[in-house]
Amino acid sequence: MFEYFPGNYIWNLGVVATLNSGGTIDEVDRACRPIRDLAQQGSDVGTREFMASWRRVADQVEQQAVEAEKAGHRRTARQKYFRAAAYLCQAERMLSNSSPERIPTYRHLLDLMEKSFEPHTSRVEIPFEGTTLPAYFTSGSTNGEPVPTMIMWNGLDSTKEHMHTSGWPAEMAARGISVLQMDCPGSGEALRLRGLTSRVETEDWARAAVDHLETRADVRDDRIGLVGWSLGGYYVPRAAAFEKRLALAVAWGANHNWGEVQRKRLEREGENPVPHYWEHVLWVWGETDLGTFLTKAERVNLNGIVEQITCPLLITHGTNDRQISVAYAHQSFDQAVNAPKKDLRLFTPDEGATEHCGLDHLPHVAAYTADWIEDTLRELS
Description:
45% of the residues lie in helices and 15% in strands. By secondary structure, it is α/β, with parallel strands linked by helices. The protein has 2 domains: 9-113, de novo design (two linked rop proteins); 118-380, Rossmann fold (3-Layer(aba) Sandwich). Strands 1-2-4-3-5-6-7-8 form an 8-stranded mixed beta sheet, sandwiched between helices.
């Protein structure tokens, strides 16, 4: 993995994710250079300075977008709004959830993101337990005809904006497949602005997503799939085991026993995904003390669950994933005995995409996943 900040895994992960999600190397360098020495003090120290430095570049790019829009250069403006949003995605992710900057920054990010949308992407609201789950819908339908659709889910610390800036929804749309990018409970806007926290039973929001898609005339309701990265490697298989309307499922990075991973992190085994880690997980799961959270986390595993998956299943994983051991990918794969088709794709250091969710070479794992989905949909037909 490209390591701009030697020894600081979390900050480096943010850099490579940005460079593989629409960021330019010059703008990322100008955001990172002023805080290079600060990075040596660890991931938690300096996150406000990280935010400020990246914000300066994002503000500059946003102003360029405004000027392009005033001049009638709408395509240029969208591209610049997109990059400004991508930079704020990563900077906001670094902040403590108690930071007074976090919510205002996220609200601004939402505005930038929607200004960047191409005509085939729109914001939607998915009815869920008396409220709604915010999402973006990128359509692969060219004339309103029903097409296959993938539901896309976050992990512990990403947002629907990370999903959109990854470029994967646009790539799928180019292949004639729509993508519903959701902020699930415990992530993104659902957590930050609506207070919806995560839960073990992810089939609850899978049901809501499928119910919503079945109301759309541009969705083939017999070709709805589900993909999720990072903690989505738990969320997706769990949902696929119980929501039988799903035609296929993809764990973009396995997460067979996330509860066990938390115990290991207490013992300093493996890398954390974000600064202020324990504060972050308590926020996501709606708990106030570590002991109660760890008890709940023990249930966040797929033992006895993946055996109930009866649709095609793909599991991808990096062999050098420093957060989630590749052993968990093998566990999920071996236990998915009732999937009519199952594939395990491991990415190696020689080819890249070997870090967590393939963030070090995101286009490589993204293309493989898209190809597998295309092939599987063809086989189902």
